[in-house]
Amino acid sequence: MSELVYDLAGIGFGPANLALCIALHESEEAKLKNFSMVFLEMQPQFAWHPALLLPGAQLQVSPIKDLATMRDPTSAYSFLNFLHSQGRLAQYINREQTVPSRREWSAYLAWAAQRMDCYVRYSRKVVEIRPKEQNGKVAYLEVLAKNHITGEIETIRTRNITTAVGGFANVPSHFRSMYQWPPASPDAIPRVIHASTFLPQMERLDGFLQRQQHANSHEPLRLAIVGGGQSSAEMLCYLRDKFPRANLDMIVRASALVPSDDSPFVNSAAFDPESVTTFWESSAKARRAQLEEFRRTNYSVIRSDLLSQVYEMVYDQEIDYFDSYSPEKGMVRIMASTEISEAEKLEDGRIRIATYTTVGEKLVRSDTYDAIFLGTGFERAANTLPFVNTLADQFPLLSAEKARELRQRELDEDTDIEKLSNPDAARAKLRGITRDYRLVPSDPKRWRHDPSSVCALHPSVMQRIPQSRMGREGSRENSLASSRRDDSGYNSSSTLSSPPNSNKTNDQSLARGPTNLYLFGCNEYTHGLSDSLMSMVAHRAGVVSTSLLSATTGMSKH
């Protein structure tokens, strides 16, 4: 067997796997070990949320939390180095803004991704993952991917997989029968649009709405935005500018639009690298309480500057004035404390929505809209990934039913895990995933899996942990790192700096360590709110690259 078996195959090439690719590319240890990797991306080229690159939209995280800086401030793949390479560093500093525009951040990510092109296969949709056994143990994994260019199914063999495919549009049940992406035909006019496909869908809807507005000049367009978060507010402002005469309704469950909490103490508690370890070490009840407490940092909230813009828009329309030089404008209505009870598509294509208020006097309304825009977030659950079906019976977190059982069991037991001889192994077994993002199989022996080998925190992170915690965390995790061995007895240390994408024969690869499946972006319940956010990609890349390299021996010599 001479087929190449990679040390790592990454599924998806968004910021999470891109940051990991960069970390391994820059690693001197990976270079010495001839670590090989490939990443499979469904899109034809790198793109980061292209559907929401709206004019004026800003990043919602510090640009220092880029692809590399939190792992290695000297990395050549930092946002500041991007600005320097583009000749815009001084001009950026002169802006005196805390965050860049989303367009500039997208350009930065694309710049970094282009430099990693040798590791990526674009236009590849993963359809299945198959474990392959030798001598009763899983020796490697086969990833089947459809090449969108040729239509062929390609097979990639690998010891480790990292899945980072992002979220899927969360479409409320009332609208699922009306929502379709991709569109059924080139001529189809979308009437229900999710934020994740906003700009591409607007290209199709824009001309139709313009014609409708022109044909019925006496009856303005009616558009509804569902949801009270950042995406909803951005779509509202975009539609207000695009269709100034339209009447816009923003339907919100909460009693008011609220600002995101980006204060420093909250940011530190929820999004700093050491917060992941603190969260991981907490009980199930404590983690649930923290997720609820810090929801205001990320869910159904709006940046303060944009929130002020929306309020000014609503306030200004209350001023009674006459100005023959100003174009007529439609009304913007914030329908707070409002639930949707029913939605139906009418024969003329418009959509009727029935709503009722939940606070104060109960108001029941029925309104008809020309189009609906959903700012209703994303679903991020491991069991929703279609290509993991063949592994669902082997990894509890890949089964919806078994994942619920794990959570309930942890809540029921509520054991003081710190008193156990190996608390991290106990946590991993209870939760189905390790601190360093490896899924725990139902039968660890079959997968040569040791949940106790929890990856040590990257040194750059250890330096930032307060001394009061260093004694407890540093001694435990460093001792685990120093004693970690794979089946070959290899004892590793990690020095993170540019590996070649070298080929190896199958025999050589299978001697290089255990087989693992890493999961990114679906671990909010175990790793905290930052798991699916940009805040954590650089730190996690350091943790996971250390984990991968610790379990990988050097090339066999023949």
Q: Mean of residue pLDDT?
A: 85
- Radius of gyration from CA coordinates: 25 Å
Total domain modules: 2
User: Sheet with the most strands?
Assistant: 7 strands, mixed
First-to-last CA distance? 16 Å
Helix content: 25-40%
Number of strands: 17
Our count of helices gives 18
In what range is the share of β-strand residues?
15-25%
Low-confidence stretches: 454-506
| Structural class by secondary-structure content | alpha/beta
Shape verdict = globular
How do the helices and strands line up, and which of them pair or pack?
Blueprint: E1 5-11, H1 15-25, H2 28-32, E2 37-40, H3 79-85, H4 89-95, H5 102-114, E3 120-121, E4 124-134, E5 137-147, E6 153-163, E7 168-169, E8 192-194, H6 198-215, E9 222-226, H7 230-242, E10 247-251, H8 264-271, H9 273-281, H10 284-293, H11 304-316, E11 332-335, E12 338-345, E13 351-357, E14 364-369, E15 371-374, E16 378-379, H12 400-413, H13 423-431, H14 459-462, H15 467-483, H16 506-510, E17 516-519, H17 524-527, H18 537-550
Parallel strand pairs: 1-2, 1-6, 2-3, 6-17, 8-15, 9-10, 9-15, 10-11
Antiparallel strand pairs: 4-5, 5-6, 7-16, 12-13, 13-14
Key attributes of the depicted protein:
globular, alpha/beta, oxidoreductase, 17 strands, seven-stranded mixed β-sheet, FAD/NAD(P)-binding domain, 2 domains, EC 1.14.13.196, Lys/Orn_oxygenase, 558 residues, 18 helices, five-stranded parallel β-sheet, L-ornithine N(5)-monooxygenase [NAD(P)H], single chain
